[in-house]
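Researcher: If convenient, please comment on what follows.
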Amino acid sequence: MSLWSLWQAASQVGGEILGDGAVVPSSLSMDTRTLQPGACFVALRAERDGHDFAMQAVDKGAAALLVDHPLDSDCPQLVVPETLAALQRWGQTRLAAVRPKAVFGITGSVGKTSTKELLAAAVGGWKTPGNRNNTLGLPEALATLPEDLPSAVLEMGMSTPGEIRRLTEIAPLDYGLITLIGTAHVENFAGGQQGIAEAKGELVSGVRRGGVWAHLASDEWCRWIAEQPWARHAEALPVGEGQAYGYEAVESLGAAGETFRLRTPLGLVPVRLQLPGEHQVRNAALAAALAIRAGFDPEQVAINLGTVAPGPGRGRLHPLAGGGCLLDETYNASSDSILACAGALLQLPGGEAVVVLGSMRELGPEASRIHQETGAALKGLGLSRLWAYGDFAQEYAEGFGPRAVAFPDYETLRDDAAGLSAIPPGARILVKGSRFWRAERVVEWLLQSSIFSPQPSGF
């Protein structure tokens, strides 16, 4: 079975074919900005109506259109009652038709994408590309899932209750992994952190009866999930101190990554990671434990973990002039992830350890307190200075105390004499922030600045 033609897709999702039903889309796309020639453009009705952009998609080389009414175009069309339902059904039925031998799902408040990369490497499996971890992106990726895969690793994110349940309906799981239950998106949960745990626990509910899910033994909310009646159909696999699976003898290699020994029922296995920071050791141990429990060879799992390199915005390191370095963790931010990355920064070579932070989002009425506590915790870890911007920058600075400065927005941070240009040469710099504040602009400015002069030779 190759990729589906429009006729084959219609047989799964319903609808009417207009034009050449034999065309075989190479992928699905909901965004004309990233659409590649040969894709089927999915016209969703959201804040903007995707049907208004269908002709742009055709001009960019779309091979077909998924629409909810016929359009005046010669491009082949699959016309369905509701395009979102059809998109999800397409991904769901494609997975069912070419299902790999093992399907893994990953969620958590922090570390989902890094752990997805580690687990996919550990099992030699296909993985959801980029951040396609929601009820749009996951079925979009699954719609053209290759056949004859030994395994697939699916990232599953959420911001409100019920989203992960829907994802596991689209993609039922053989194995699951929860990285950590934190406070991200807490404003959307009336039950606070227990509400987050219940929503993350939807992944466990979606694991087949007799399946296995891994979690950190130290995570009290994951332990709470394991005790719930709705989670008892699957085996909980705790990883950490006092457990059959765990990690020990952790050693930082600075910019070169981490080493540790993975503890398994079969003995100790040495692991070397390219990813810096002890939080990545925890992620790798979770991935390795689940892979081995699923039947993969421990020695090969360890070798494969060492092939994973940091990606942009997710732990990529840049050497700077004067012996400094820039740790790019700009993809997103929560208090837990900020502190974990700050710990990694302190293990790197260079001068002063400083941090540039965009504000966090979706923290509800606790936002001020969480920002203040995060600032105070950064100071307690040993960071020497903090630059903050955004709507809760002042709270970051108040928590950190002296040697912290706050700015209302990126432009002021960039242009003020006390802003980015005041970061001392030779410093170790962590940059992080929520997606809303686009902290990658800070990284771009620093790398382009003559003050810091990135060194091409690397570490």
